[in-house]
Amino acid sequence: MKQHPIFTRHNNDIVCQVPISFTEAALGGRVEVPTLKGTEHLDIPPGTQHGEVFKLKNKGLPDIRSYRNGDQIVQILIEIPKKLNDRQKQLLKEFSETEDGSFMPQRKGFMEKLKEMIKGDD
Q: Helix, strand or coil for residue 39?
């Protein structure tokens, strides 16, 4: 069987990865997601993390035994721009000056684990 360019199959579920911008991930938004029967809109909540998974109920493949459709699993991929213009760089520098880390739970957890690991070496 030939591999599909967008979807992979997991039993009766269909899986696809959807790239979004880091601003869409941070602020939230609405994106179009391809399905087997066209497109669907998916609401992205503010603070969505890279790799986060959403489920579109009954958008997968039919089960021939139960006549129930599988689901579509949508994994979010956050794209970071490779090139920024001067205005974008300035805005991001201003934003970085307001960051205190308390709104980044994964980074905070990582840093705490790192501190514990360093303390253990004494």
A: strand
When pLDDT is cut at 50, 70 and 90, the band that residue 104 belongs to is low
Using an 8 Å Cβ cutoff, are 21 and 48 in contact?
no
| Domain co-membership, 60 together with 21 | yes
- The CA-based diameter of the chain, rounded to the nearest angstrom, is 62
Per-residue pLDDT reduced to its tens digit, 47-94: 999 999 999 999 998 888 887 899 999 999 999 999 999 999 999 999
Domain shared by 57 and 101, yes or no: no
Are 97 and 61 in a shared domain?
no
Q: Fill in the DSSP letter of residue 121.
A: T
Mean per-residue pLDDT, 92-115? 75
Q: Per the structure, how many domains does the chain have?
A: 2
Give Cβ neighbours of residue 27 (< 8 Å, ≥ 6 apart).
Answer: 46
Residues spanned by the domain of 95: 81-122
